[in-house]
Design goal:
- By secondary structure, the chain is of the alpha/beta class.
- It is built from 16 helices and 26 strands.
- It is 26% helix and 23% strand.
- The strands form 6 sheets. A 6-stranded mixed β-sheet has the order 11-10-9-12-14-13, with helices on both faces.
- The model is unreliable at 628-633 (pLDDT under 50).
Length: 633
């Protein structure tokens, strides 16, 4: 008989410049393989072969190792003669060993995202505790099973009516000398025993996890001392399915099996970060016994394995809005299997646990007078506190503030331009996020704060009108019409001075993208102020990574926020992550988050007849494109 030939089901892919290698399933596309390997590649169109942002250079590949290019892919590939073979990662299927290089302009994450956090002391009242138990021997009268003797030991230790689940007993039975040890440790979440172990209690740890559309941050915390012992950040690997939540919902709508893929991507990434942080801190995974998760509603739905597509269609409601607690094992997290994982409430379809978490960080002063909390990201969330009454809305700002949909846009990281200014003599200058080694100071693109800075600088110098139109070509030597596009653009950095060797420009289309994102946010703010009849704002608090790196003068100058004195605009860093740690260290903050969700009134902008007119008015790039607020003296 002829023997059947076994065909390989996996192939190896190496991604340069970091030399990361991974195994992918035959037929899988390069883009998904890249994110599985921890290599971030842009995917503005959600991996649908429409934008060309996921360009890679093929360094080596046997014949047939990649699928043949289609006409659709060829149309998006660069027409250059530099000796390289280029492919789109979202369209090239892997069928054999291959090595590709990801150029800087295609990298979704050149370095971990800048996720600042505030070190604060929180009164400790964790949701999990450890208790030392003295367990009677097997021959103690009356003779009783081990589980009964452990229950009696819990009562003697003060843990009356404790619940001893089968899973905890079964796990304990796998330990050496489990049935003959007199001294054991019980880990409890409330009255439920989640872990039993031989010996004396060890320090107990927990996780605070902030899942953003673009990036993820994990805090490993000592629940005994109330301290952070490790922090890890990464790009959200779900970006392989699109830069925004709508793209990811669309993939799930097309095939519900993609929900499981997206969930596994984020869980695997969290596990990778937890293992890395725990190893460096010398913490055993069996001592991580609690977790708090925050994120926007789409991210929270996907983590929980809940189909988020109802969020993308009217009336834009979450499948569930309450804060939920599930066991770590049910999500696949590699910590204590029975550890509680608390996911904050979702008050509305686009107001999630990350917004509530940011509110947890605000003290009593936020609830006195008229104060605004603004989290600017792929989706903008705004909360107005008017004498303690909370009103909120969300705005579809889009990923422009993350550098997406910008011709030379990149994620914030070394080499990304974050400041632009025009000198009195007309010279255009810039400043980029520095490399640690400072070996190469040349930029390779504009990050979100650089985008806003560029618009502000060009408007201030008269090179860009408040309507978003560029000035005449003759007004500045750096203004020109783009080759191949014919649209106006400003040359910020000539190719000879950039890391890619290509010009870094800011185009007319870039300006329009900024105007749309800016108008969505400002119009949302104005709707809240109108609804609550607020004419005076006391403070504006900017939350999130992007907000933390904005210059208050820039955002006031172009009308991104109302014109209040700049000293009353305060960046509060990664407030979502800070609030998640508060809820981790003190269980009462979990109850407070639930109360905030119940008290918050959410305005759905799509239901407002006057929103469109306000949106159009807010496209103006000036300090007061909307009805003027009275300033506080």
């Amino acid at each position: 008989m002829r023997k059947s030939v076994a065909h390989p089901v996996h192939a190896g892919v190496t991604f340069l410049p970091d030399s990361r290698r991974t195994e992918v399933t035959i037929g899988e596309r390069l883009l998904l393989g890249a994110w599985k390997a921890g290599v971030g590649i842009k995917s503005v169109c959600g991996g649908r072969g429409k934008c060309g942002s996921c360009l890679v250079s093929v360094e080596s590949a046997a014949e047939g190792a990649l699928s043949a290019t289609t006409d659709e892919e060829t149309a998006l590939l660069p027409r250059v003669e530099d000796g390289h073979t280029y492919r789109l990662a979202c369209m090239a299927e892997v069928h054999g060993e291959v090595c590709v290089s990801v150029p800087p302009e295609s990298q979704a994450l050149k370095s971990p995202p800048r996720k600042p956090y505030t070190v604060t002391r929180v009164a400790l009242a964790p949701a999990v505790t450890r208790v030392a138990l003295e367990v009677e021997g097997a021959y103690a009268e009356p003779l009783r099973p081990l589980a009964a003797r452990i229950t009696a030991a819990l009562e003697r230790a003060g843990s009356r009516n404790a619940e001893l689940p089968l899973a905890a007993v079964a796990g304990f039975s796998r330990e050496t000398d489990f049935d003959s040890s007199a001294r054991i440790c019980a880990t409890l979440a409330g009255k439920r025993v989640i872990q039993l172990s031989v010996g004396q209690p060890q320090p107990i740890y927990g996780l605070a996890i902030d899942i953003g559309t673009t990036s993820v941050v994990v805090f490993l915390c000592d629940l005994t001392r109330g301290e952070i012992v490790g922090v890890r950040t990464s790009g959200n690997p779900q970006a392989a399915f699109g830069e925004d939540v709508i793209s990811r919902m669309s993939h799930i709508q097309d095939d519900v099996a993609n929900l499981g893929t997206l969930q596994k991507l984020i869980v695997d990434d969290i596990n990778r970060m937890v293992i890395d942080a725990a190893r460096e801190a010398g913490v055993a995974l069996k001592n991580i016994a609690d977790a708090v998760v925050v994120g926007n509603p789409t991210m929270q739905h996907i983590l929980l394995g809940i189909n988020p597509t109802p969020l993308g269609r009217g009336p834009y409601l979450p499948v569930l809005s309450e804060g939920v607690e599930v066991e770590a094992a049910s999500l696949g997290l590699n910590i204590v299997p029975g550890a509680p994982v608390f996911v904050l409430p979702m008050p509305a379809g686009y107001i999630g646990g990350d917004t509530l978490s940011a509110l947890l960080t605000r003290g009593p002063e936020f609830y006195r007078g008229n104060n605004l909390l603004v989290d600017i990201g792929t989706n903008g969330e705004v909360v107005l506190a008017k004498d303690g009454v909370l009103t909120a809305t969300s705005c579809a700002t889009g990923p422009v503030y993350e550098g997406a949909h910008i011709a030379c846009g990149v994620r914030a990281g070394p080499g990304a331009i974050e400041r632009v200014w025009v000198e009195p003599g007309g010279a255009i200058r810039w400043a980029a996020i520095p490399e640690k080694s400072e070996r190469d100071r040349r930029p390779f693109g504009l990050c979100g704060s650089g985008v806003i800075s560029a618009v502000t600088a060009l408007v201030g110098a008269g090179l860009l009108g408040s309507d978003g139109a560029f000035a005449q070509l003759s007004s500045h030597p750096r203004l020109r019409k783009g080759a191949g596009t014919g649209q106006m653009e400003a040359l910020l950095v000539p190719g000879i001075g950039s890391r890619t060797g290509r010009d870094i420009v800011f185009t007319q289309q870039d300006v329009r993208s900024v105007q749309l994102g800016k108008a969505a946010l400002r119009a949302g703010i104005e709707m809240l102020l109108r609804d609550q009849e607020v004419k005076v704002l006391d403070h504006i608090y900017l939350a999130g990574t992007f907000g933390n790196h904005l210059e208050p003068r820039d955002i006031v100058a172009i009308g991104l926020v109302p014109a209040v004195p700049v000293e009353r605009i305060e960046s509060i860093g990664n407030a979502a992550g800070d609030g998640a740690r508060m809820a981790l260290f003190n269980r009462r903050d979990r109850r407070r988050a639930r109360r905030l969700a119940e008290a918050m009134r959410v305005i759905e902008l799509s239901n407002r007849a006057d929103f469109q007119d306000m949106f159009v008015a807010c496209t103006e790039l000036s300090a007061e494109p909307a009805p003027q607020l009275e300033q506080v003296g």
